[in-house]
Each structure stands twice: as structure tokens, then as C-alpha cells.
Amino acid sequence: VQLQASGGGLVQAGGSLRLSCAASGNIFKINVMTWYRQAPGKQRELVAAITSGDSRNYADSVKGRFTISRDNAKNTVYLQMNSLKPEDAGVYYCYAVVVSSTGGYHYWGQGTQVTVSS
Fold first, then answer.
1. Cα separation of 29 and 46, whole Å?
2. Which of 7, 63, 73, 5 is nearest to 34 (CA)?
3. Helix then strand then coil, % of the chain, to nearest 5
4. Is beta strand 103-108 parallel, antiparallel or unpaired with respect to 56-58?
């Protein structure tokens, strides 16, 4: 299974970006899809998560500004980021718990860079 993240880039503060993460490979079901981010010198932190039942969870710092969604038919998770702030900058990673024909495993995507200019 591979996770391919895309959509990062440079945006001015107050702007928007939409990240995508597509899973491919031996997939029977994806239980949880999650976005994490890591800023330079900081630990990786959870940004948002969505379950197969469409239950969503957000970090307090992004509530009301970010929206996570998923397209189960495409095995893809999205992160719509609005009203971006400089402190939102970092590398965004997708993470998924995948059930395949051989069992359940977790995977990380390669990361996509988000830069927010003030």
C-alpha cells in the first residue's frame, strides 16, 4: 500500500490550500485516515482525523478553519485549509490504518510542504 500526498505549496496568510492523499495497493478497507504536520524543530502533531464512519477529530488550533473529508471510492482523504496562519506551516503527512487481504497495517505518506507567508 502506498499513500501519495499532494496539494502543498506557498500561500499568503489568510489564504487556502487543499491537500489530498490517495491510497493505492492491496486495500480492503481504510479504517482511519489522518493528517499530521511537523514544523521545523517541533514534534509531529495530529491535525485532523476521519474514520470510516465519518467521525472527525481536529486539533484545537485548526478547528473552524480546516475540514477533513474522504472519498471512500477513491481511497482518498482531503484536508481543506482555510484562513491559514504562519504557524500552520510545515510538512503535512497523511497516515492511514488499512485493512488488506493479509491483515491490518498502518502507513505514512511522503509528506507535502505547506508554507504560509505573513
1. 22
2. 5
3. 5, 60, 35
4. unpaired
